[in-house]
């Protein structure tokens, strides 16, 4: 599915705006053969001749994008099986999310897929995107503009998958993959987590979860993943009927899910931007040894916000050792505050030395730096370059200022893999996720399932 040699678009259409046209247009970006399949069409589409069936393609097609209406899907899946196609994306709705008749239709599709050993993404999905290989198996516009990053987005909702991917683009981060699971006919959370855990381009996995009937599989896949997993479980209030009509999801007890994720070492968040920020922090950083955060700020106000929010979200601010405080006094005599957080009062050339001193403190597991941009000083890029790897601790950086003035410095921090955040709150939330993750890893995770939903 995610690494095909050739792709077929079944139900490809010459009419702009139809899923069959948009899916074919996106698929043509792939650096490999793409075949339009439609027995009702003649000629060619994007310069490629139509074929009547996937069984007529004289090539090893691994992936088919199914753009036909729901009732025609079982026949298409059967043809794919006969042609040796191993994976099918089903865009159409009207399956398990639509009541008893839809459930019967989905069972028929799954039975056919199981007969031929086919992996199904969907039904009722907008597909997936792998930017590194220009594998754009989505019918949404703008998919070709998603940059490559190191976060795999696995969302129950295709809409939320795209929301997260587009947000990541605006943040200058990108994704290793974006996957909308839809109804999870036979490819769901378990299979995709396992796949992207083994993907060299993926350093963090984020989940959008409405609900699942395989809570055990989901939690065990998260626990067994060497790649950090962060989850956003929606449904704290009563959205059960709406969610079930969306992807056939049974939302279940929100606290049960949250407790299950916690037991299995998965930090949870409550917003899409928080999910991506947590992925940036975990994906670009060493795993922290615990929840203790050392904060260095060049301005007291943001430092107070960070300190308050961080502690309320599960982070701890340990006292710095006497040796570290003496070291900071030696760097900046009369510094505003040498406790934790360390407040230097304003940026200065020695700011990076102060950050280094805090990072090297044995009491600190995570370092969070806040510095409003001052053009005459810039950011301490040289000091931060390689610091996290050397001390084996995450080092996060937050700032604000005039975008065009600090663009080069922000790019320089990104180039040396320092996660950058644009508000005190977002930085604190990301550090808090690291703190919770570090505490979970240090304590070990409970191997018992809370319950299946």
From TrEMBL:
Q: What is the reaction catalyzed?
A: acetate + ATP + CoA = acetyl-CoA + ADP + phosphate
Query: Which top EC class applies here?
Result: ligase
UniProt KW keywords: ATP-binding, Ligase, Nucleotide-binding
Location of the CoA-binding domain: 1-95
Matching InterPro entries: Acyl-CoA_Synth/Transferase, CoA-bd, NAD(P)-bd_dom_sf, Succ_CoA_lig_flav_dom, Succinyl-CoA_synth-like
Is Ligase found in the keyword set?
yes
So which domain of life are we looking at? Archaea
Q: Which GO terms describe its molecular function?
A: acetate-CoA ligase (ADP-forming) activity; ATP binding
Under the heading Pfam families, the entry gives: CoA_binding_2, Succ_CoA_lig
- Could you tell me the EC number(s) of this protein? 6.2.1.13
Q: What is this protein called?
A: acetate--CoA ligase (ADP-forming)
What species is this protein from?
Answer: Haloarcula sp. D1
Q: Which gene encodes it?
A: acdA
């Amino acid at each position: 599915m995610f690494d095909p040699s050739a792709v077929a678009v079944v139900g490809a259409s010459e009419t702009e705006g139809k899923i069959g046209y948009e899916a074919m247009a996106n698929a043509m970006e792939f650096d490999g053969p793409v075949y339009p399949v439609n027995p009702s069409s003649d000629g060619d589409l994007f310069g490629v001749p139509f074929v009547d069936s996937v069984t007529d393609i004289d090539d090893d097609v691994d992936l088919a994008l199914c753009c036909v209406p729901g009732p025609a899907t079982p026949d298409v899946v059967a043809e794919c099986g006969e042609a040796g196609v191993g994976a099918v994306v089903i865009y159409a709705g009207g399956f398990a999310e639509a009541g008893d008749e839809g459930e019967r239709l989905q069972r028929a599709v799954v039975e056919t897929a199981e007969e031929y050993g086919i992996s199904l993404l969907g039904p009722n999905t907008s597909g997936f995107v792998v930017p590194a290989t220009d594998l754009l198996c989505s019918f949404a516009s703008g998919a070709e503009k998603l940059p490559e990053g190191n976060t795999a987005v696995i969302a129950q909702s295709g809409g939320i998958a795209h929301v997260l991917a587009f947000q990541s683009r605006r943040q200058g981060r990108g994704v290793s993959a974006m996957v909308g699971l839809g109804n999870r006919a036979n490819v769901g959370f378990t299979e995709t987590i396992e796949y992207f855990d083994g993907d060299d381009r993926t350093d963090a996995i984020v989940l959008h979860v409405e609900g699942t009937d395989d809570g055990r599989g989901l939690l065990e896949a998260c626990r067994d993943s060497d790649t950090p997993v962060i989850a956003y479980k929606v449904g704290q209030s009563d959205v059960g009927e709406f969610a079930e009509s969306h992807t056939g999801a049974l939302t279940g007890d929100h606290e049960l899910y949250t407790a299950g994720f916690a037991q299995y070492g998965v930090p949870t968040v409550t917003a899409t931007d928080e999910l991506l920020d947590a992925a940036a922090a975990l994906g670009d950083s060493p795993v922290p040894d615990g929840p203790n955060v050392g904060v260095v700020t060049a301005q007291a106000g943001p430092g107070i916000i960070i300190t308050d929010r961080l502690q309320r979200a599960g982070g701890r601010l340990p006292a710095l050792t006497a040796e570290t405080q003496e070291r900071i006094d030696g760097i900046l005599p009369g510094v505003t505050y040498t406790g934790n957080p360390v407040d230097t009062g304003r940026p200065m050339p020695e700011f990076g030395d102060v950050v280094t001193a805090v990072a090297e403190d044995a009491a600190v597991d995570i370092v969070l730096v806040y510095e409003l941009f001052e053009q005459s000083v810039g950011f301490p890029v040289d000091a931060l370059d390689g610091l996290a790897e050397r001390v084996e601790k995450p080092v996060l950086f937050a700032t604000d200022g005039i975008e065009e003035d600090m663009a080069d410095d922000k790019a320089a921090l990104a180039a040396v893999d320092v996660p950058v955040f644009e508000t005190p709150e977002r930085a604190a939330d990301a550090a808090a996720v690291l703190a919770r993750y570090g505490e979970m890893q240090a304590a070990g995770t409970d191997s018992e399932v809370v319950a299946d939903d």
